Amino acid sequence: MAVQQDRRAALKRLKLLVYAPKLNVDSFRSRMEEGFACPVLPNHVDCADYNYGGVSCDVLSPEIYSSRRIVIYIHGGSFIAGSRASWRGFCARLAAKSFSRVVVPEFRLAPAHPYPAALEDVQAVFRTVYTELQVACSLDASAEKAAAHPEIVIAADGSGASIACALLFSLREKYRTGVSRLVFFSPWFDFSEEAAASKGKKASDELINGETLLRCGEIYTFVSNLTNPLVSPLYAAKEQLSDFPPVYIQCGEKELLLGDTERFSNLLVSNGGQCELDVWPKMMPFFQFADDHLWETHLAIGKAGSVISGEGDTDAGTSFHNKPRLENSLQADA
Question: What end-to-end distance do the CA atoms of the chain give, in Å?
Fold first, then answer.
């Protein structure tokens, strides 16, 4: 009974993260901000306000972190909502578990600022972070020559994964080599009419349906642009996927979009890339954001943190489902 109550409470909270077509955009934004505002950061993480390339950003710094590694986190919110404030709590936990500073950009949102506004903002942040980190590494006398280069991890959830992939596709080789890994939580990879039609309006999981996905895409950009790889990464060409950084994807077994995620994983592997697909049994989309109700959340963020810090590397060219065991939760809580 308690488990069922926790699950219902988790779902009620997580529904605030997904836009429903009948909702007013302003109402959706305000509900999300109220539901995920974090007045006190966990794990003694400090938050500072920075301007990177003209974009306001949070920089979340745990007590212990690697000076040569930084995470740029691109939040979800269906392209139309979300902010560094509403993602601050989650990103602070990720910073602590990964021993990394996390930069959270306040990029522009649709419909007032449709594609490519968010991508342009994230590009500006990346270029500035890359340059500053490169200078810092070159001035570090203790750094070995092989390690004296920027190590940037791009992380994202939901619609943010589309922007993150677009960032990688658009980077010149000079910058692309600075990205050591991508980390995705319940990513959205296809907003096309074909994708929505194949799922059907009635097809859904506990949070998302085909109509929601299509509507978010239409708000973000014009319909004929929905198959653009910079919007729907599943349409990426072979040359866009060449020399792609290793990817770690964490999602729930009960996600409607799991099939899209598996196709993207297979696409990367078939083009010589590395992808670990980490599917958590019985979990819904974005379960990592329900830390007050689901014990799996803490394990999942810990796993993602170990991947970011380099402790959870997998073999090249792998794509598999991870099945965490119940007894692992006891270790996490110890």
Answer: 24
